[in-house]
# Entry
Amino acid sequence: MVFLRSEEHLERWLRRNRWEPGASMNATTLNELARRWWWTRVEPDWRPRTPAESQAILDELGLTGEFWRLT
Amino acid sequence: MDEHELGIRNEVYASFVRDGRAPTAAETAAALGLGVDEVVDACRRLHDGHALVLRPGTTEIRMLNPFSAVETPHRVEARGRSWFANCAWDALGIPAALHADAVVSSECPDCGEPLELEVRDGELVDGADLLVHFVVPARRWWDDIAFT
# Structure
């Protein structure tokens, strides 16, 4: 996952690497995803999430569809 | 992932946050009063459970997501020190995991232009106009986590 300056830069980067487009979001949405995903990661009582719990975080941010299916 | 493995995992994370580098298996074993082989075996199981990532073919830690144990293009300054993150998502994951303000320095992979983001009180106050792209679908993230 990378930060890019704009759609123009994204398209050129994908073309140069001959990669199919994946999924894009703005950095604000990624920050919210990061907060929900990583918030407890260094806490002593951290426990691994179930796939359903992780999927729920993606769903809550509207990250739905085949690309975002974890299993 | 049992309580014993989670205890080792927690010590590894605490050590990384405290010292800014990944501990060796010997250091973790000494900290917990365990045998080195016991720690190595647990780390392999934690790797298999995606709770940390070992460098291929070794017992060295490569990733303690969202932290990277090796240098990357994504640098995060928080709590008066700097860290490397594995990707854009992890770069914003470090302030989230530390519950701290942070400045993220990265670069556009197309043009190499330096990019900067700032998180304050959990909000992205600089860099909000940047675009983020995921190349790999979620189901395949762990096929090659270093590429992802």
In short: Helices of chain B lie at 3-19, 25-32, 36-48, 88-98. Chain B touches chain A through 52 residues (CB under 8 Å).
